[in-house]
Write a structure and sequence with these properties.
It is built from two helices and five strands. The longest helix is centred in the N-terminal third of the chain and has 16 residues. The relative contact order is 0.15. Keywords: Signal.
């Protein structure tokens, strides 16, 4: 009897601590009931062990070949906090798994808007992401229609400036000073000797 009581207590305690979230999907708005029938297939559930986060994705999309065929939907699930890391990058793929249930030909590339987030209190994902309190951890993204763009290659040419320096050797010519020839005039004194005159 004691063992049964303890087992019941453990199960009750586990269920009391388990998170409750909305799970499933709702097609909330559609321009074509044929392609996107309105459908509500969601409910509140008790999440399994290890699932301590509620996820909500809100998406709008349409068939690329039929611009007027638009639909909006919401997806809900229980998740672990760890799986919420990087969830923004998977928004389109996660959301299309809900909206795409209305029509399997809808692809992620046909989405025009996608928002996704995780919250961590009971049934928090039953409400629009825009109404979540600021203290709630959320991640959102908006995805434009996918366009295939060819990569552009930009070629950059770097021209190195070349400086040419021409050195002209300098020749120094030394011109000896011009010396005017010096003329030396020598004057030789002339002595005239007059012989004595003999008396007559």
């Amino acid at each position: 009897m004691t063992l049964v009581f303890l087992t019941f207590l453990v199960i009750f305690t586990f269920n009391a601590d388990a998170l409750t979230c909305k799970r499933g999907y709702d097609i909330t708005d559609t321009s074509s009931e044929f392609f996107f029938p309105r459908k509500v297939d969601s409910r509140i559930v008790t999440c399994s062990g290890g699932e301590d986060a509620c996820m909500r994705s809100e998406v709008t999309g349409g068939l690329a070949s039929f611009i007027r065929l638009q639909a909006s939907g919401v997806g809900y699930s229980c998740r672990s906090r760890a799986s919420c890391v990087g969830i923004v990058d998977r928004c389109a793929n996660i959301a299309i798994s809900y909206l795409g249930r209305a029509n399997q030909i809808l692809k992620a590339a046909d989405l025009s808007q996608c928002e996704i987030g995780c919250c961590f209190t009971d049934n928090c994902n039953a409400y629009a992401i825009s109404t979540w309190p600021a203290t709630t951890t959320t991640t959102t993204t908006t995805t434009a229609p996918t366009t295939t763009t060819q990569p552009t290659t930009t070629e950059t040419t770097t021209t190195r400036a070349t400086t040419s320096t021409t050195t002209t050797p300098t020749t120094t010519t030394t011109t000896p000073p011009t010396t005017q020839p010096t003329t030396t005039e020598t004057t030789t004194p002339t002595t005239t000797t007059t012989p004595p005159t003999r008396p007559q």
